[in-house]
Amino acid sequence: QLQKDLEEVKELLTKATRKRVRDVLMTEKQKLELEIKNQPPPKPKEVAEEEKSLGGYTVKINNYGWDQSDKFIKIYISLSGVQKLPAENVQVNFTERSFDLLVKNLNGKNYTMTFNNLLKPISVEGSSRKIKTDMVLVMCRKKREEKWDCLTQVEKESKEKEKADYDTSDPSEGLMNLLKKMYAEGDDEMKRTINKAWVESREKQSKGDIPMDI
Question: Residue ranges of the CS domain (predicted)?
Answer without folding.
Answer: 59-152
